[in-house]
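Researcher: Here's my situation. A collaborator sent me these components and asked whether they could plausibly form a single complex. I don't have experimental data yet, so a predicted model of the whole assembly would be a useful starting point for our discussion.
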Amino acid sequence: MAVKKDLSIEYLGVKCENPFFLSSSPVGSNYEMVAKSFEEGWGGVFYKTIGIFVADECSPRFDQVNKEGLPWVGFKNMEQISDKPTELNFENMAKLKRDYPDKVMVSSIMGSTEDEWKELARMSEQAGADLIEGNFSCPQMTSHAMGSDVGTNVELLEKYSKAVTSVTKIPFIAKMTPNITSMEIAGRAAVKGGSKGLSATNTYKSITNIDLENLTAMPVVNGKSSISGYSGAAIKPISLRFVAQCLQDPELKNIPFSGIGGIETWRDALEFILLGCRNIQVTTAIMQYGYRIVEDMASGLSHWMDERGFDKIDQFVGAALPNIIPAEALDRDFRLLPKFDTNKCVGCGRCYVSCYDGAHQAINWNEKKRIPELDDDKCVGCHLCLNVCPVQNCIVPGDIIFKKGRKRHPIKAKQQYE
Amino acid sequence: MSKVLKGTYNQEAVSGFDHRTAMEEAARCLLCHDAPCSQGCPAGTDPGKFIRSIRFRNPKGAAETIRENNILGASCARVCPYDNLCEEACSRCGIDRPIEIGKLQRYAMEQEKIFKMKILTPPSKKIKKHVACIGAGPASLAVAAELAKVGVKVTVFDNNPKAGGVLSYGITSARLPQKVVDQDVAAVKGLGVKFELSKEIGLNIDVNEMLEKKDYDAIFIGTGLWESKKLGIEGEQSLGVVSSIDFLRYAKDRKGVDFIKGQRVLVIGGGDVAMDCASAAVLSGAASTAIWYRRTIAEAPAQIAEIEYVTKLGVGITTGYAPTKITGSSDGLWVEFLGRDGKSTANVNVDCLVTAIGQVPRDHSNFLPGNIDAKGDIIAKKDGSTKIKGVFAAGDIVNGGKTVVEAVAGGKIAAAEILKYLGVEV
């Protein structure tokens, strides 16, 4: 598997061999795990969050959401921060930095008081961390003085950011919670407190499934359960949205951002980069598939750069962000009709059913030939049919019809669907 | 190195789906509008509907759809020639390969068993009519169920100790375990249908007599084909020559054919029955098993899936040769063959020869005078009615031997006609 391109990128002044990092979570809990991930190609680690508080965990602690037999569409976890002694974690960190000097070590920390934050920051510096991330976002802490309850409190965000940055020169990243209406407001508070970077998103408070055996949520812990963090592919769309909103905020637009949320493939990673992220963090996909997934992330991204003629990731960071505009600014002058390839059509009628029951009754069903027939006048160009069709390239964008009274002009439409 | 399948007589040829794999397969379904698969089932089992139930996590609903439409839903799930019926009609064929409808049906019917579902129950309203079904095979069971569903009293007669006909005494266990047949029969019994088994009724009695006694308001005949076609060659009576009917029945009764262990077996024929005989022989421990068929694989009536299965079991198939003479000797049977070209010959030494070249009815001429064609089949219209008022027939005894699902379909049609005859409004 070839990685032809240089995937290195600088993040907060630290040179990273690639942007792919483990996020602070079970996947980076000890020396052996992180060492293995480095050997397999990860560029760095956000070491599992260390606190003065040592977590006492429940069992079991995970659940997953599946759809139509496809497992792990979403993933729920009830783990808190590290359950290992604080000193041991920093020792591991120091050893990893010594043995893998070219890999990037980010110390993820979480205090419950200003003093704890300061102490953890000092310990991180002593351990040789390249960067420090403040975990303001774990949604399942057993204490309200920590985690996402802090991340939704602008005063505490600023205060604790200040505490950390007052004792160390190592750049500090505030990890944001999505369990908030406007992440920008929280982000501004962290920056005001001295945070140099932001990372988002942590997990979403969730109930994945109700267990029909015990009549509680999943996972079942002695007949009970709790609300806790949701991650995996299902959250990617919402995480991308938070990232875009932060990076479009006038006060945060130049903040070096680390993207997190449902990243499994190079494409997912690239999507975060195209919104402006300079760093990528992954956990859930590693829990499901292992560290090896980084090989295809690196190779896939390299191939895409090759296709597009890019030499450095820097050349396309944030390239998609300007094209995400408010709803009121969209061009609403035309209808883009779908085009049906009747040779490819297998006659399932799904487009007909969906257009009738979920759209505008613009597809007529030819019962004899078992093919759809579009009523151009009724079609609003919503493309529900294109989205429901199971055959690749059977329904594609076709004619552009300008609405009555609107001036004709060139239209950019998507051509390649997968 | 080839890797032939190993197994024992009672081992199932194909394993089924569990919840996860069933859901994965159901997720491949395109959930077509006016689903072609549903139109492709002669018995109206409605796969489009039951697959949608599985997809929307309602396997019990799926089992209900199947059971309500096809009283032999569990057996059909195992033995239906899907590749010629619903799966051939599947729209997904236009993309890659059809949905495994048979296996999904099997999964749904397994849920019926696991959850001890009683899907069909006798209606509270009874109709004072009594119908006799002669034979307890697929066509008769379908008729009995359809009539019992609307409250008609039904008694099914069979000369065998178990109901199911060809399902219980023909089709080999690897394809159709007895527990699956019993599950279907239990559904018929659950409707209140009475069974008179081990009763040699009919054939010696004139059907007119039965009607005159007025014990029954109508009679359905679904007696099937229970005589093996003869090869019509010299030496056919030799020791070691067995008919497919006797061979498969022996295997079913004793869970294998003990007398062929370590023996060289040759099966003559090219239909599913020949394939069943060959697989039963291999799985019973025959030293070698070969099939000889007079035509080509393309012309063979067997399902390609069954031909593949016996091939995987290591059975050799020789085509283009018909037997001409059998000679018994101290070292077994010598079977002489003549090629289709009229010139090539072969002389094969085996211990056991199974003839599986087709089945014909027993003599019904006394039972149904004037209603038998030259082949011995009962003459009946498409709707199941015969020339004798109040007497109906369907299944293999009428169509000359087709599939289980077609027998069910024929039985459903005949049942509708019987209800019409009885003046029962549905």
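Model: Some features of this prediction you could bring to your collaborator: Chain A touches chain B through 16 residues (CB under 8 Å). Residues 293-308 of chain A form the longest helix (16 residues).
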